Amino acid sequence: xxxxxxxxxxxxxxxxxxxxxxxxxxxxxxxxxxxxxxxxxxxxxxxxxxxxxxxxxxxxxxxxxxxxxxxxxxxxxxxxxxxxxxxxxxxxxxxxxxxxxxxxxxxxxxxxxxxxxxxxxxxxxxxxxxxxxxxxxxxxxxxxxxxxxxxxxxxxxxxxxxxxxxxxxxxxxxxxxxxxxxxxxxxxxxxxxxxxxxxxxxxxxxxxxxxxxxxxxxxxx
Length: 221
What we know:
Blueprint: H1 2-34, H2 41-48, H3 52-56, H4 62-70, H5 72-85, H6 91-108, H7 110-119, H8 125-151, H9 160-177, H10 186-201
Helix pairs in contact: 1-2, 1-4, 1-7, 5-6, 5-8, 6-8, 6-9, 6-10, 7-9, 8-9
């Protein structure tokens, strides 16, 4: 009986999360196309064919919407790191998996990440600082992964922190030039980034056989 009593609440939560996600998606697309300042709550409501009170039932204002959109990319990337970090794979294999998953996130949530880059200035100072701290945490965890690779003899790196920031920067920048349906597929881009990153880290990358991936689990390429 207790399980049955909990089911409606679970369904209600799922519906609520779906509605929030749809609001986020439409708001993000308008922020991407028009800019944050030119986008109104009314415009978001019109895109969804709902009323403004419907939007305010899930978000107290446009600023809250911007914050949740801007933190999406780094939140998903840290979640990917959590999944990968707990495994027993080698540092190289973990790095390959991380680059693959984060590239897929950057491409799949391209508009979200571009909006963050353009509109960070419109975030509340505390919210902007919170996202920067999350991004710093990603770089720190990546630096620690690289350090383990150095200690195991897999990588040769002079500056761990700078190398970590370089890798995360390469991944983030994909969002600004990737063209859906363009010359390069997501698999092309992922394999190219993997080749670039691993060539930076191996003592002699010419002797390291880096197998190209052929698919991204749950990906869009």
